[in-house]
């Protein structure tokens, strides 16, 4: 039997993203300044800082030189008389930060942590039959080590249900029994009663497969008292369940109906999957019985030109491109992922280590979450687990990142509290913690006279091989033993020197490289493939991000002393495999070759102006080489070419003539280097395998006059607040080769049923604004992001390089069930 979901009554939980206004927050006794009285109309999710003017400051590199601010959001909405006696709530998936919620100017709720979802019961504050106002205040001020953004940056939902209603995240599903013949879905439904008398309702659960066929159902009564939640547990059996796997992410949908006779009080849909997880030192991590090594990427929360706004399509696109680049896992760094990104991981098949905190009781920034941790950590852990519990992509929780307290006994006790709380809430997943050996003993290093001027990251960048000595010291071994004993998997940040040591000292310890330097993947991956106790590697980072500006840049000796943060106008970290526009950098292809996922060689060329300069990369650098043969130099200019290949031998040819043969493959770090001379035309790498087969890859110089071209990722999108169209703008010749030298100033005009949500390029040190209608190209490329405002056509016209071109995107009304998230 196939279920048509569009035939169901509309869900009682609908988008509350539209119709908001935002302005700088004004103190109750403060005077208005010019411009503050006029609010800006916005559609959520929204980042109030992404368009802020960047300013030079001493420590501004942490946030990409974007200052903080305080903001007030407001929304007017009608409350019809028939809502009287019903439960009316608004769910915030994330407000950064120190959110204060007011309904009709009455205080209704507070949430200090910027990454937790929470529900606000508006019922006591509403005026039925009238226009009502909700106000949300948020702020960001020296509370983050990276660009945090500010405001209501995640989705907001309105729930209007009966007096008997589902609790927040009130449907939780586990799969306690699974074999080839059947799978059991254990559905726990939590109900609340805001009325004055006990009520008995019925809960019907229907399980649908990916084809919307009904495969199981159950119905039972439950009596809900006014003073306590009622949990109904139903076990539904699914015959021959299709497994969720990274290569075949089969999902099921549980449709939960809360019924009072013929009246449906509430309707909820929940996606979940059947899969098994196992962990031991003999086989490592097993998914559905198969050993799987985690090819991991750390990811920050921002979406580049959109700032911190977690618009659903932006989150989905990042997962699409990360998986296409060869990753099978991500680690959220350093806060819980958005629901939108977890949904994308479920659909596309990417595993997740979801991380709770970057700080516990000891601060890393002047006004960070450590000030609220002791009072709020338990509620924030609960929020994370409630959000994650139904997602098959989530395999592990991380309780922290580089927490200084992990090097002492009382700090280990904090770790135990957090870990045991998670295990009480969700015993089906594993627990890790990203320990940095140096951070765990930082206080003792300072006591011993070690110079930590500039901070731990700066010290790590300067110490080089000395980090290995510290990481493998008895001091670290003894200081971290209890903190590691709290965990199922020991997470090591920049601690790969302990991989072999811990195999001997702690034979039952499983290890994941929770954070590693990009250039060390070749050595790290060889160890991971060799040893079952090593289950994966997570590079810092898979996707470039705003803030920690320039930590991955390549400096040169003639530029003077190197610091951890780069000077203004640096904006991004520049250590990602993929830049903020979604363009893969050479390190991404190098990693793909190391993983064994690419057989073709890859060519990356160092800028010829740097040929005689001494490079001084940071620990987070890979190379300043680019995949281009377009250089503004005369023929015969010396140039350095790198070829990445798993083949034992590589030949480089320039216009058909050999420029030499060099060894490559694992024994030579998967890289062959050629000092040669530039010549207009074509450079080709020929990888010769041991069996005599060959693989080729080439770069060519573009010819003629640059042509302005636009490519849209999708020409049809949904007219909802969660969809976007990404338009890539390039300067190309007639053969599609990109002109990477020089820059062109582009202007963009958007007409019709949409707006320009953001515009930018991958340049890590530009002064261009994401909120402008203008943008320079970087390496011949730029990116525009369109957001629909309703059904109809969106026409975008791009002008630059003396040309103009247009593209059209059609925003289509969604199907009836999806209409619940249509624009307000």
From TrEMBL:
Domain DUF4982: 636-692
Spans through the membrane: none
InterPro entries reported for this sequence: Beta-gal/glucu_dom_sf (IPR036156), DUF4982 (IPR032311), Galactose-bd-like_sf (IPR008979), GH (IPR017853), GH2_Domain-Containing (IPR051913), Glyco_hydro2_dom5 (IPR040605), Glyco_hydro_2 (IPR006101), Glyco_hydro_2_cat (IPR006103)
Entry keywords, A to Z: Glycosidase, Hydrolase
Coiled coil: none
Protein family membership: Belongs to the glycosyl hydrolase 2 family.
PANTHER family: BETA-GALACTOSIDASE (PTHR42732), BETA-MANNOSIDASE (PTHR42732:SF1)
Protein name: Beta-galactosidase
Organism: Arthrobacter bambusae
């Amino acid at each position: 039997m196939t279920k048509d979901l569009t035939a169901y009554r509309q869900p009682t939980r609908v988008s509350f993203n539209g119709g908001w206004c935002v302005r700088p927050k004004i103190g109750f006794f403060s005077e208005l300044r010019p411009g503050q009285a006029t609010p800006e109309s916005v559609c959520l999710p929204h980042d109030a800082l992404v368009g802020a003017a960047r300013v030079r400051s001493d420590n501004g590199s942490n946030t990409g030189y974007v200052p903080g601010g305080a903001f007030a959001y407001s929304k007017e909405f009608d409350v019809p008389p028939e809502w009287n006696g019903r439960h009316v709530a608004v769910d915030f998936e994330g407000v950064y930060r120190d959110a204060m919620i007011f309904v009709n100017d009455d205080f209704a709720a507070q949430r200090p942590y910027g990454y937790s979802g929470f529900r606000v019961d508006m019922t006591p504050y509403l005026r039925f039959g009238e226009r009502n106002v909700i106000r949300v205040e948020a702020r960001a001020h020296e509370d983050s080590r990276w660009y945090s953004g500010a405001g209501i940056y995640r989705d907001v939902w309105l729930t209007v249900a009966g007096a008997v209603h589902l609790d927040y995240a009130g449907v939780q599903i586990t799969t306690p029994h699974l074999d080839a013949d059947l799978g059991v879905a254990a559905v726990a439904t939590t109900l609340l009663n805001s009325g004055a008398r006990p009520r008995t309702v019925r809960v019907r659960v229907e399980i649908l497969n990916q084809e919307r066929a009904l495969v199981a159902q159950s119905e039972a009564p439950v009596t809900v008292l006014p003073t306590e939640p009622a949990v109904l547990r139903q076990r539904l059996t699914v015959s021959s369940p299709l497994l969720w796997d990274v290569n075949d992410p089969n999902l099921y949908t549980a449709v939960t109906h809360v019924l009072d006779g013929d009246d449906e009080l509430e309707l909820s849909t929940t996606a979940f999957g059947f899969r098994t997880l196992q962990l031991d030192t003999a086989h490592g991590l097993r998914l559905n019985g198969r050993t799987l090594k985690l090819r991991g990427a750390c990811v920050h929360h921002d979406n580049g030109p959109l700032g911190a706004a977690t618009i659903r399509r932006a989150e989905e696109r990042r997962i699409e491109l990360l998986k296409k680049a060869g990753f099978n896992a991500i680690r959220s760094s350093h806060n819980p992922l958005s629901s939108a990104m977890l949904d994308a991981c479920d659909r596309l098949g990417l595993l997740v280590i979801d991380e709770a905190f970057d700080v516990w009781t000891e601060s890393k920034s002047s006004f960070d979450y450590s000030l609220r941790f002791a009072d709020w950590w338990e509620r924030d852990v609960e929020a994370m687990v409630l959000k994650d519990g139904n997602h098959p992509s989530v395999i592990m929780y991380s309780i922290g990142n580089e927490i200084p307290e992990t090097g002492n006994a009382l700090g280990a006790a904090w770790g135990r509290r957090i870990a045991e709380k998670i295990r009480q809430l969700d015993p089906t997943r594993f627990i890790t913690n990203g320990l940095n050996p140096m951070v765990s003993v930082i206080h003792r290093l300072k006591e011993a006279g070690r110079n930590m001027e500039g901070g731990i990251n700066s010290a790590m960048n300067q110490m080089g091989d000395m980090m290995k000595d510290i990481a493998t010291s008895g001091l670290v071994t003894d200081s971290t033993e209890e903190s590691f004993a709290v965990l199922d998997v020991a997470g090591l940040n920049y601690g790969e020197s302990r991989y072999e040591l811990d195999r001997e000292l702690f034979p039952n310890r499983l290890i994941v490289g929770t954070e590693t330097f990009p250039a060390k993947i070749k050595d790290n991956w060889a160890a991971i493939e060799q040893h079952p106790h090593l289950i994966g590697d997570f590079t810092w980072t898979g996707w470039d991000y705003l803030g920690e500006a320039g930590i991955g840049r390549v400096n040169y000796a003639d530029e003077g002393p190197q610091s951890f943060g780069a000077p203004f106008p640096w904006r991004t970290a520049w250590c990602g495999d993929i830049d903020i526009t979604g363009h893969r950098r050479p390190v991404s292809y190098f990693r793909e070759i190391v993983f064994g996922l690419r057989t073709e060689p890859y060519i990356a060329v160092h800028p010829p102006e740097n040929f005689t300069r001494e490079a001084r990369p940071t620990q987070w650098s890979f190379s300043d080489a680019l995949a281009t043969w377009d250089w503004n130099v005369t023929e015969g200019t010396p140039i350095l070419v790198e070829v990445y290949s798993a083949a034992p031998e590589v030949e480089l040819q320039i216009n058909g003539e050999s420029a030499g043969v060099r060894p490559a493959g694992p024994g030579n770090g998967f890289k062959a280097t050629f000092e040669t001379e530039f010549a207009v035309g074509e450079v080709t790498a020929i990888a010769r395998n041991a069996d005599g087969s060959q693989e080729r890859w080439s770069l060519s110089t573009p010819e003629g006059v640059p042509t302005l071209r636009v490519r849209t990722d999708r020409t049809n999108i949904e007219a909802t607040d969660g969809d976007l169209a990404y338009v890539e703008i390039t300067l190309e010749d007639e053969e599609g080769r990109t002109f990477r030298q020089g820059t062109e100033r582009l202007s963009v005009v958007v007409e019709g049923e949409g707006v320009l949500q953001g515009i930018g390029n991958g340049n890590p040190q530009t002064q261009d604004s994401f909120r402008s209608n203008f943008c320079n190209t970087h390496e011949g490329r730029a990116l525009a992001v369109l957001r629909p405002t309703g059904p109809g056509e969106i026409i975008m016209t791009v002008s630059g390089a003396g040309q103009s071109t247009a593209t059209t995107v059609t925003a289509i009304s969604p199907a009836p069930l999806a209409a619940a998230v249509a624009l307000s």
